[in-house]
Amino acid sequence: MFRCPGQDQRFWKPGDIFEVKCPACGQSVEFFKDEPKQKCRKCGQEAANPKIDLGCAEWCQYAEQCLGIQVGAVREKLISEMEKLFGADKRRIDHALAVLDHAQQIQAEEGGDPLVVKAAAILHDIGILEAERKHGSSAGKYQEMEGPPIAKDILERHGVTAEDSEHICRIIASHHSAKNIDTVEFRIVWDADWLVNLSSDFADASRERLKEIIDKTFKTHKGRQIATETFLKD
Hints:
The protein is mainly alpha-helical.
């Protein structure tokens, strides 16, 4: 029986089996390169494979059966949904896409579930129009209140599992306040959003003030590194 070359271990190279630290307890979790998720044997927390390569999902007719939900396809559908909702509001569309770009860059180094990170980055501000309509304000607390129900409906329509949807919605519900969640995926989206907001919200801040914000606010090593290289250049 023919096997996908990417899964056939005869074609594997050193490094295709590796260990990742559990995001909850720090225990080492062994991954084969084609395993999207594994449960930590020590605490039971589900850890995502930060090195999984889903490139074949873009062309292989068996990708859905092989890998389950296609991250790349879902990413494009969620972008389309976000763009449709924001309509002619190019500023908010550009903001979401910039956050997504930073989130993908951080996730490549920090790990975490790629689907959760990308979906939360795309949809993090999805409640802003409803916040303005219902509350007359785009304040963060109203975005956090109105965003999750809208995101949940979108995610369900595109086949995202209930577990992943709940995680994504928790990130959206805390992306301004950082309350009640501290997963690696949340920290990535938080930093990605701050990377975009720093350039607009603190355009006139001094170097000392920017350093203070970066040191105090950023939650991932990679996010802090990007912020430092971008905003604290000599």
